Amino acid sequence: MQLLFDFLPLIVFFVAYRLYDLYVATAAIMVAMALQLAYQWLRHRKVNKMLFVSALLVAVFGGITLAVRNPVFIQWKVTVVNWLFAVAFLGSQMFGNRTLTERVMGHAIELEPSLWRQLNTIWVANFAVLGALNLFVMYNYSEATWVTFKSWGMIGLSLLTAVGQAVWISARTSQQEANKDR
Asked: Over the chain, what is the mean pLDDT?
């Protein structure tokens, strides 16, 4: 259920685009994300930081898109969000005791600090590449292709990264266990 809740604004955006146009889809995702923030606040009395940043950027870039009637702003939002996440993950590696990846997953698995840094670097690369791919698709393909890529291609690529991460973790934890047994 949480996964559907997380993807709801994206689904709303995609459906609104297919039924109307990018401007209606932009307004729809702005409303969907505002409702998501309100729901999370009312239910938990707190808001997830990543959701807050994403919603804020959707509001800013979406508002500019609607005000000047130029889709380039909402299209750039995807790159800005991904690159901000890349910078945040990279910054956590340079400053502080634990990487963002360890903060998110540390309760579930045990890894050596060097392995947490490697895993974190994988996510830095993932977000950096997604941001660059968004620009490539945005400037080289039709708006409809960009919407499909933004809605489903980026999710697919992130899922591939997550599956690769799971395989990587499994191999490393098996290796750690084997080294402990020696």
From this structure: 91
